[in-house]
Design a protein that fits this description.
two-stranded antiparallel ribbon, single chain, 501 residues, globular
């Protein structure tokens, strides 16, 4: 049985000495795949998953990418259902801000506390299952809220849904980033999140043309049944993940991988309080997500004000923007195959800054067009900030990941401030609020490209998870094979080698 599997220590994160003690008797990447069905994995034990190859990681990556698409679809459908709920109850703009606070407030609470604890204590599989179950309970809670037409119940249901989604993000994002060769980390997460964007685009289109076509805007019966369908679907997905083969990449595995890359990256193990890149990444993610949600929440009203078009026409423009957002993620993933991710982030953030500034001054359809381009350039920012922020965290990877997910709570602050400025000035001037958030986020790629360039480029140059003539680089079986060859060249028999040792 691989070391560290089947027992859970009192501490959730390993000490570096523990990792070194296990290093010579750690499992191979083949054993990591063979033990994917195990239900309990210590975060302090090595599993062999630090050297997974592209081929070994394809199936679990595809499985979790399907999860990204499905919850992107459910999330997009949730937006439509929430809008129908608000129209039926005549919810004011101020109360709508409260709804966003309830949803994004869950991100502030969940990942640093229970979600982060679950992923470190029980591993990725159980965090997926926990997140899906919480999400399902939140969707079920919409039924009594709709029957009673209760605003408070609606807020509570949104908070539970946000808790479920934040728990899913606490596990899915770091899992995709760490499952496979480290040099492809940014590419993997970008591709997976691209499918989430596709799901978010498809859901509103299907909802308006299939689910809620020719229905009374005040009738909540269809909404109730749709929420029930979402709940049943995510509970079924939780069952699927219970039986699915998912390798566990522990913090001990990430510590070993970071040490193996130290020659290229200059990695030195540091306590969490000295992980300054992580802290900057959390601040950048908080401001970026807040600014992104601020733009999205006011896009339709901005378009109506700028181009003097109807709400329906403005919604069509927003759908185009969402489509460009999905395309942008695929484009960024393609660029990452031959450009350094830190450069890609700089290019896209520069585009965001340029076009959000233009959106403040350009009127008419031109204003709508430049704001649509903001959505395109926003596309790669979240996943790229995420992966670059957790680079080199080693044994702190899971905890650091949960903090970056918690930064999504910025979406609770910026939309309200943007709406406040819009009410008192105009929607064009209100874009100054997202501009400030984007400006803080823009400082992060500048920092990465000046201070952290060697470290980030070292991980990109790493060959861990790739094959050479001796086997898979970074895997214990390759090290044993190379040691055997060296001893054979010296004329030492296996028995003599054992005695000598």
């Amino acid at each position: 049985m691989p070391f560290g599997i089947g027992k859970v220590g009192k501490r959730e994160e390993p000490e570096l000495t523990e990792v070194f003690e296990q290093q010579q008797r750690r499992p191979s990447n083949v054993e990591a795949i063979q033990n994917m069905q195990r239900k309990s994995v210590s975060n302090r034990g090595l599993t062999g998953a630090s050297a997974l190859t592209v081929r070994q990681s394809i199936f679990p990556i595809v499985l979790v990418t399907i999860l990204f698409f499905l919850w992107g679809f459910a999330y997009g459908l949730l937006d439509v259902l929430n809008a129908k709920f608000q129209n039926s109850l005549n919810i004011t703009a101020a109360k709508a801000g409260g709804l966003q606070g309830a949803y994004f407030g869950a991100y502030l609470i969940g990942p640093p506390t229970y979600s982060g604890w679950v992923v470190r204590k029980f591993g990725y599989r159980w965090t997926f299952i926990t997140g899906l179950c919480i999400y399902g309970v939140g969707a079920l809670m919409f039924w009594p809220s709709a029957v009673k037409r209760s605003f408070g119940g609606f807020c509570g249901s949104l908070f539970i849904v946000g808790s479920g989604l934040s728990t899913l993000e606490t596990s899915a994002n770091p899992f995709i980033a760490t499952c496979g060769p480290p040099r492809l980390s940014e590419f993997r997460l970008e591709i997976s999140q691209s499918f989430q964007a596709i799901g978010s685009v498809m859901a509103p289109l299907l909802a308006s043309r299939v689910f809620f076509k020719n229905t009374d805007p005040t009738d909540l019966s269809n909404v109730q049944w749709t929420y029930l369908g979402i709940a049943g679907f995510v509970f079924l997905l939780a069952v699927v993940f219970y039986f699915s083969p998912i390798p566990e990449v522990t913090d001990a595995d990430m510590a070993l991988q970071a040490e193996q890359c130290a020659g290229l990256t200059g990695y030195v193990d540091k306590p969490l309080r000295q992980q300054y890149k992580l802290f900057f990444g959390v601040a950048a993610q908080f401001c970026y997500v807040g600014a992104q949600v601020g733009v999205a929440s006011q896009f339709i009203k901005y378009s109506v004000e700028s181009a003097k078009i109807s709400d329906a026409a403005a919604s069509d423009r927003y759908a185009i923007g969402q489509g460009l957002f999905a395309i942008g993620r695929f484009a960024a993933a393609g660029l990452m195959m031959f450009m350094k991710p830190r450069w890609v982030l700089m290019v896209f953030m520069t585009g965001v800054m340029l076009f959000i500034a233009c959106a403040m001054g350009v009127q008419g359809e031109g204003g709508v067009a430049v704001l649509t381009l903001v959505l395109f350039f926003e596309s790669c920012v979240f996943p790229t900030i995420f992966t670059l922020s957790i680079r080199g965290l080693g044994r702190h990877t899971k905890r650091g990941s949960s903090w970056i997910v918690a930064a999504v709570s910025g979406g609770a602050l910026f939309p309200s401030l943007t709406g406040l400025v819009a009410d008192n000035k105009s929607y064009h001037i209100a874009m100054c609020v997202p501009l400030v958030g984007f400006l803080v986020a823009f400082a992060f790629p500048i920092y990465l490209n000046t201070v952290c360039a060697q470290e980030l480029d070292g991980f990109r140059e790493s060959k861990i998870g790739y094959h050479d003539q001796d086997g898979t680089i970074g895997d214990i079986s390759r090290e044993e094979r190379r040691a055997s060859v060296v001893h054979e060249e010296k004329g030492i028999s296996p028995i003599e080698k054992e005695v000598e040792y």
